[in-house]
Amino acid sequence: MYTEENARGRFPLRDILLKAIVVIIFLILIVFIITKLTSSNKESDNKVSSNYDKVFSENLEKMESAAFSYYKKDKLPLEVGDKEELTLRDMVNRNLLEAFTDADGKSCDVNNSYIRLTKNEDDYTLKVNLKCGNKEDYSLMKVGEYDYCRYDICKKDISKETKEDKKEEPTKEVEITEPSDNSSNSNIISNTNTNTNTSNSNNTSNNKPQVITMYEYRKVTNPVLSSWSGWSEWQYNNDRIGAVICGVNDANCLKEVQLYSRIEKVGTDKGQPVYGRVHYYSYRTRTLISSGSIDTKWSTYNDVSLLNNGYTYTGNTR
Question: Residue 30 belongs to what domain range?
Answer without folding.
Answer: 4-49
